[in-house]
Amino acid sequence: MSAAWRVVLAEALKQHRRIFGTKLVVFSMLVWPVLTLATAYYTILPVTATPGAAARWPLVAEPQRLAAFLAAGALAYTFFFSLVQSAWHFSFERVSGTLEALFLTPASRLALVVANGSGALVQNAWLFGAFAVAAAAATGTLHVAHPGMYPLALAALLVPAVAWGAFLNSLLMFSRDSAFLYTLLDDPLWFVAGVRLPLFAMPLWVKAIGLAFPLTTSLAVLRGALLDGEGVRELGGELALLGVLSAALFALTAVTLRVGERHAQKTGSLQLF
Description:
Blueprint: H1 2-19, H2 23-48, H3 53-56, H4 63-96, H5 98-103, H6 109-139, H7 149-171, H8 179-185, H9 187-193, H10 204-210, H11 214-226, H12 236-267
């Protein structure tokens, strides 16, 4: 366990030195999610004025609660998409040969990909997370059953996101071309997960696909716990599903790493396609 923690700390320090070269990078960590939130809000705003919109979706009659709904979506999406970016950066290590050097060490492979994802998550999402919580508290849109729901909501974001990032990183054992991650997991991810639109407005096939992504369920827990005043009993089904999805992702990551490393040993493909 101590060796795994050393791997986590080393990966976090490496990412910080590589990515955060200037103060402008820290500034962009807030600007990008805020612009995303503003785009989503003003895109939906004209629709909320249409006749009958409030009858179908009562939230549109309350601008502050609508903004909080979208802010929760932007926050959760920032958590999960930062892991897509992490996998993209991880592919650079494969091209440069860093990944090959890491795999020559006795470091745990699972600890390595978990550390890479969690390090990126903490560094990329903390600023917008603090902004979102402060804004929700200032506008009075937080509605929490009891204080214990705060750490529960945070865990419902952190644990599945780390599992998601570890799985994405493990996929790159088979190819250093990570461009497909952006194609498949940028716009499709927010669409099927209900980041900007309520899931009840989606067709059944979109809802079915969304259930395969942990972001969908994490977002349901986050909104239920912090905006709708739901407790553990009301969110029990979503929490159980998150636990299953997270465990499945960690298990798939461990298997993918073993298979991928054996494949790389036979083909010498850590630096090749």
